[in-house]
Design goal:
With 50 residues, the protein is α+β, with helices and mostly antiparallel strands. The chain has one helix and two strands; from the N terminus they run H-E-E. It has a two-stranded antiparallel ribbon. A hairpin with a 6-residue loop joins strand 1 and strand 2. 0% of the residues are buried.
Amino acid sequence: MMLRSMLLVVMTASLVGTQALAWDGTNTTSGSSIEIERGQLVRSGRTMEV
């Protein structure tokens, strides 16, 4: 029973921890910071390197 509870806690924490609320990065051309917050529209035509 204890093992099952611990497994449930670990699974819940791993799922909740993977949700991104924003994306941060750097523009490689200008060196400026980029932040895409939740709810912002990302348009096609630009390339993002991961």
